[in-house]
Structures are given as C-alpha cells and as structure tokens.
Amino acid sequence: MPEFTRAVHRALNDIPHEVIIVDDDSPDGTWQVVEELARTSPWLRVVRRIGRRGLSSAVLEGFEAATAPILGVMDADLSHDENILPKLIAAVAGGAELAVGSRRIPGGGATRWPWYRRFTSWGATMMAKALLRLDISDPMSGFFVVTRGLFERSKPRLEPTGYKILLEIYCKGQPARVVEVPFIFRDRRQGYSKLSAGVMSDFVRMVLRLRRTSSRP
User: Fold this and answer.
1) What predicted TM-score, i.e. pTM, was given to this entire model?
2) Above 60 in pLDDT, residue 190?
C-alpha cells in the first residue's frame, strides 16, 4: 500500500488531489496501514467498511466521501498505470463527463495475461458491447474518472453489485462525452485476483439487468 499511495501522489504532484482508500476491513490490516501513512500525508484518507463487501459499493462510498468535483477510480494492486491519471483528469476538466483508461485502443494492452484471462476479458467485453450497444472500447475497465455531476445524476438509479461499476454509471448516467486514454494493464504486484465463477455469473446477470433497465438508445 505505501508503494501505491506514493506512486499516485507522485503522478498527481502538480494537481490538487486527495487519495481515498476504501477497505472492507481486510484481514491484513490495510486500513491500519493507511491510517498510519495518513499521519504524515494529509492528502490521504481511509474509509473502513465493516460488514459491507463489494467493489462497486466501495467505489460509491469512496465517491460520497470525496470532496472534489472530479472523481476517479483505480485498483490499488499496482496493475493500473498511475501515470495516465493527469490525462484522464485533463480530459474531464476539458469537457468530457467520463474518461476511461482503455486497454483496447491503439497504445493500450496488457502484460503477460494468460490466454484464459484474455479470453474471459474479450468475451465479457463483446457481450457487454453487443447487448448494451456501447460505444466505448473497454467497458470492462476499472480505471476511470468522472465528473461529480455524472455521478450525482447516475446515483439514484445505481444498483452497486459486482465489480463493474463503470457499466452502471455509463448506462444509467448516459455521459454526453466520453474520452478513452490508452494504458498497459500491468501484472499485479500485490493483492489477488477477484475473478471467479461467482463473479462471472454476477456480471452476466448485471448485463442482462442493464439491458432491461437502461434508457440508453
């Protein structure tokens, strides 16, 4: 965690920012580590959740805790390239409502993914794009920046289950302008993958629900 927070802080050195770590009471004591780091890093905070689980709901709780007009999401396992954060923020500051770190446009990709991981990601992407008629290249991304306005507009209709909150915000909030910024998805250097049969099943149900309820034309 210290490596991650330092990397993000360096990447945003010239941009006023706060970093909020949302921790579901991890048994490794993540919240305690972040609290200790925050003693000498006033830009760093932790939200410790007890009895609540799930990435999507954690993202929304982090957004609620933030005070800035621009909100961002990234994994803390060092797989997301913090160096594109200024580009994502600049895109939103320049008029986009949503900026997505994309692995599926020129310049993007992933390092050393096994074939089954690539196949699963590709299949989920194709399913989401086909059923939801999406016009973004990487709807499976967990690395994105939004305006607070888009979040507030989406919030009353969000059903934060599973791990793909970007799909919920995109379909429910219908951003007027989206920018995609390429990045290389790195091998995680800490933590573990959340991918499981249950997660995949939750994703399929979410896509089918969004297809029924989305007002996107």
Assistant:
1) 0.88
2) no
